[in-house]
Specification:
The chain is an alpha+beta fold. Helix content is about 30%, strand content about 35%. It contains two helices and four strands. It has a four-stranded antiparallel beta sheet with strand order 2-3-1-4. β2 and β3 form a beta hairpin. The longest helix is centred in the first third of the chain and has 12 residues. It is globular and about 30 Å long. About 25% of the residues are buried.
Length: about 70
């Protein structure tokens, strides 16, 4: 298992959190997702086979940006 921390920019409400959570959860190999609106962050637990690039692609596809964690 591995944990990946991300900064997600552009989230403004709980609906945004829901979209980002769903997008990250849909990435194969993701086992757990916690998105924090206040801190504009996402903590993603994976089985070790997921890259930051894959997670970034999923978030960007939903219309958000990924910054430095």
């Amino acid at each position: 298992m591995s944990t990946i921390q991300m900064t997600v920019l552009g989230m403004t409400c709980r609906k945004c959190v829901s979209h980002v959570t769903e997008a990250l959860t849909d990435v194969a190999g993701v086992t757990s997702v916690n998105v924090d609106l206040e801190n504009k962050s996402a903590t993603v637990e994976t089985d070790g086979s997921v890259t930051l690039a894959e997670l970034t692609e999923a978030v960007v596809a939903e219309g958000y940006e990924v910054g430095q964690a």
